Amino acid sequence: WDSIILDWLVANLLIGMNLGMITQKMLNWPSLNWAQDYPSSMWKIKLSKFMTVMTPSSWIKYDWNPDNDPISLILNATIWILMGVGEVNSFFLINIFQLPRDHAFNALRQVFFCLAALPACEEWYEYTRH
Known about the structure:
Layout: H1 2-26, H2 43-54, H3 70-96, H4 104-129
């Protein structure tokens, strides 16, 4: 019960949300309205609105050419090495926790890391190119 009160109520709701609102005001960011009122029969409009919010406003063309210079080659090889370490980590977790290979933890963990890697790849591209 203490983790519910301390982590969820105090840290997330009181501190986290208030610090987020203060940061938003300090940086003069507009307030987002996430709870728009739609009739319940308009689920297609809700879905399209959600997809519009969750997709970027513009798409960037990426040119992954690792042999432009030796530094880019080394930096791109670093990504592959880190991915290999992540795969070995998955293997060790399966064996340490003695989970069956088709356990939901494995799939959810992989999905989480893939979704977390999407913005990381874009940042890595910007770092190696500029």
